[in-house]
């Protein structure tokens, strides 16, 4: 059990994250930028992250840096290879010039990967049909799992070469490691299926490989599902046990707590409106027709409230001593202070910073007035823009 004293921590105070010191405890969460049409860094991507860095965050997170070409959710995403390093170095230099740190989210999308645009087979615990790519993911072999594990280590080393301060290992949203954790998706009969201990081997293995690859040169964090929000998906008790194993393994400097399934229930992570019309408009027929007809079942709507994942995250805070990052519905100083009072070490923000990249500076300048509120309306229409150019449809940011 966590026995940390209940001492108030200022969210704007400097904080250690492994070997890195952040200027505050506010992290720009990984949200796909749709700014890498050739799977390489662009000026657009640099600007996307420079704005919140200049706007006051302690660290910004680049999403999504796949560990292999077949591990991307779409073929225009960055995958970690030597050709990407010069551009990534330009990106990290630009963020450091603004006084912020920068993390690379690394992972393999597994069954969420778009085999059609990747021009490479997707992987899953068992053969699986992805309706978005209209392709089957094939069952990952032992050799595939070993190769993906090595690819994580290689991606982490390239992140060091590129000047990143941290990597975030993606263990959530039913991407590959998360799909192995899921009782619903993982129906294997070998050493990677059945018991939770077996299903957790991929997640623990890739984290261990990443830590072994980078040592203490940079921080290592991970994003872990507390729950999939899906019947027969990852239950809370199992996720807490996985988090305990990750803590015991000693490979992580912090754990970011998330929820939801990109395959089955994506809005469980976001809460707010379900913009079905906008999602349908982002695709061509027949997929757009399918979204219009069945979108209410896939894009289930959850009412927005501040700190909407806090109740679940409290259970992890009670069972773990490692640093935890609270995500989900953090848009103002009161919610940040609540997270600190509840014992969380960092907060992660997504949509609010997309709408207003300078929000953190304005909150800091507001001082005790606590009057600054995010312009984000939680309409979630920004989510439909990730297929073209990610931006807030309310404010037009990041430009």
Question: What do you see in this structure?
Answer:
- This protein is an alpha/beta fold and 399 residues long.
- The protein has a single domain (15-272, 306-375), classed as Alpha-Beta Barrel (TIM Barrel).
- It is 35% helix and 15% strand.
- It is built from 15 helices and 13 strands.
- It has helices at 43-54, 85-97, 115-118, 142-161, 176-181, 196-199, 201-214, 236-249, 267-270, 276-281, 287-298, 310-319, 333-341, 351-355, 359-366, and strands at residues 15-17, 20-22, 26-28, 59-66, 101-107, 123-124, 128-130, 135-139, 166-171, 219-225, 254-258, 324-327, 346-349.
- The strands form 3 sheets. Strands 3-4-5-9-10-11-12-13 form an 8-stranded parallel β-barrel, surrounded by 6 helices. A 3-stranded mixed sheet has the order 6-8-7. A two-stranded antiparallel ribbon has the order 1-2.
- The radius of gyration is 19 Å and the shape is globular.
Strand content: 15-25%
At the fold tier of CATH, the topology name is: TIM Barrel
Number of strands: 13
Summarize the biggest pleated sheet: 8 strands, parallel, barrel
Full CATH superfamily name? Aldolase class I
- CATH architectural category: Alpha-Beta Barrel
Which segments are poorly predicted (pLDDT under 50) over 5 or more consecutive residues?
none
CATH structural class: Alpha Beta
| Average predicted confidence as pLDDT | 94
Pfam families: Oxidored_FMN (PF00724)
Protein name: NADH:flavin oxidoreductase
Organism: Mycolicibacterium sediminis
GO molecular function: FMN binding; oxidoreductase activity
């Amino acid at each position: 059990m966590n026995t940390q004293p209940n001492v108030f921590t200022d969210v704007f105070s400097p904080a250690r994250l492994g070997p890195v010191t952040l200027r505050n405890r506010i992290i720009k969460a990984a949200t796909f930028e749709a700014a890498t049409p050739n799977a390489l860094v662009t000026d657009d991507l640099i600007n996307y992250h420079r704005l919140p860095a200049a706007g006051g965050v302690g660290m910004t997170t680049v999403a999504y840096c796949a560990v292999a070409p077949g591990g991307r959710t779409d073929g225009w995403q960055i995958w970690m290879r030597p050709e990407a390093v010069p551009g990534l170095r330009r990106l990290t230099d630009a963020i450091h010039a603004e006084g912020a740190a920068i993390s690379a989210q690394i992972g393999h999308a597994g069954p969420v990967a778009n085999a059609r645009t990747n021009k490479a087979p997707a992987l899953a615990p068992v053969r699986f049909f992805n309706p978005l790519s209209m392709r089957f993911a094939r069952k990952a072999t032992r050799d595939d799992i070993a190769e993906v594990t090595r690819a994580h280590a290689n991606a982490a080393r390239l992140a060091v070469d590129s000047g990143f301060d941290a990597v975030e290992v993606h263990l959530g949203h039913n991407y590959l490691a998360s799909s192995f954790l899921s009782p619903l998706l993982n129906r294997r009969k070998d050493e990677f299926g059945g018991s939770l201990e077996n299903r957790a081997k991929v997640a623990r293995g890739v984290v261990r490989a990443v830590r072994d690859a980078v040592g203490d040169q940079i921080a290592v964090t991970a994003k872990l599902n507390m729950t999939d929000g899906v019947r027969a998906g990852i239950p809370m008790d199992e996720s807490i046990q996985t988090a305990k194993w990750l803590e015991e393994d000693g490979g992580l400097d912090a754990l970011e707590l998330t929820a939801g399934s990109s395959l089955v229930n994506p809005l469980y992570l976001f809460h707010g409106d379900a913009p079905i019309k906008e999602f349908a408009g982002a695709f061509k027929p027949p997929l757009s027709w399918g979204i219009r007809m069945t979108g209410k079942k896939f894009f289930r709507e959850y009412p927005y409230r501040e700190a909407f994942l806090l109740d679940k995250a409290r259970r992890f805070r009670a069972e773990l001593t490692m640093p935890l990052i609270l995500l989900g519905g953090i848009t103002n100083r009161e919610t940040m202070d609540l997270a600190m009072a509840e014992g969380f070490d960092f907060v992660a923000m997504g949509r609010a910073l997309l709408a207003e990249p300078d929000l953190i500076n304005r909150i800091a300048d507001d001082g005790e007035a606590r009057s600054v509120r995010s312009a984000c309306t939680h309409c979630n229409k920004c989510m439909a823009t990730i297929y073209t150019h990610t931006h807030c449809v309310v404010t037009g940011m990041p430009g």
